[in-house]
Every structure is written in structure tokens, then in C-alpha cells.
Amino acid sequence: MDLNRFPETFVNEASDAIVVSDESGIIQFWNSGAERIFGFSSEEAVGESLDIIIPANLRKRHWTGYSETMKSGKTKYGAGDLLSVPAVRKDGQRISTQFSILGLSDSFGKLTGVAAVMRDVTDDFEERKELKKSLAECRKALNEQLEK
User: Which PROSITE patterns has this protein been placed in (predicted)?
Assistant: First the structure.
């Protein structure tokens, strides 16, 4: 086992998407997990804006937060916190994702980019939504029975 190659192999081949963007939100790194989840090859994604995976109706909010993070050097979504947001695939399909981010700094400590580890949780999200709907229907039916 060659542990010297482990970090590079892990980052490149992880099943989760690992996406690195610079301070302007331009994709600098896109692993095989990102290819699988979003449908864009690395060649298609690197050099493009994160807009390729952000639903149009959420872009303004995203860029406001992204810009603030780059200016302040701080994010409320670090330290293992998970952010759940919709994303969009190359084919236009909307998916549910969860991700955590890591700020990337230069040698002076200035935030110069962000690395995100992202997972497609669409199936889980849809299942929870159905369970909540069923629970609400059961509660309604029970309340109706108790009122009789």
C-alpha cells in the first residue's frame, strides 16, 4: 500500500463531488464524483462559473453569500456543518445536495477560494418529503376521528 498517493487518489476518485473554485467562483478543480453527480466532464467544468450547477433562481443569493465570504474570510458553513441546497445537472435536472466547505487561503491568510465536498441526497430528500406528507395526513385523520 502506497500511502504517499492516497491523498491525490482520494480527492480525484472520491464518489462525492469535490469542487474547488477561486475567489471569483470560477471552477479550478472538478473530480470524478462531480462528473458523476453533475454530468459535466472535468474539461467542461474547469474554467466555468459555479453557475453551471446553481439553479437560476438561487444565483443572486448564492453570489451574495459567496462575495461576503470572500471579503470577510469567514463562512458559517465550515467546521463540518452541512448545507442543504438544490443544484442542477448538465441535463437540467434539479437535484438536492448537501455539502460542506473549506476555505482556501494564500500564504498571507487571505481567502482565495473554496473547496466543497458535495453529495447528491435527492432520493433521501424525496423520501423525507413523502414521509412528512404521510405523517401530516395521518395526523389530520386522527384529529378528525378524535373530533367525532
Answer: PAC, PAS
CB atoms within 10 A of CB 144: 9
**CA distance to 6, 10, 33, 35, per residue, from 13 (Å):** 10, 5, 7, 10
**62 C-beta neighbours (distance < 10 Å), count:** 15
14 contacts: CB under 8 Å, gap ≥ 6: 31, 32, 33, 117
Whole-structure pTM value:
0.81
Cell representation of residue 126:
424525496
pLDDT digits (tens, 9 = 90+) for 121-144: 987 767 777 777 778 877 877 787
Amino acid type, 89: R
The domains of the chain, with CATH numbers, are 3-122 (3.30.450.20)
What is each CA distance from 109 to 27, 98, 112, in whole angstroms? 21, 27, 9
- Can you tell me which residue has the cell 433521501? 124
Task: Give the span between the Cα atoms of 55 and 95, in whole angstroms.
Answer: 10
Beta bridge mates, 114: 21, 103
Paired sense of beta strands 94-105 and 27-30, if any: unpaired
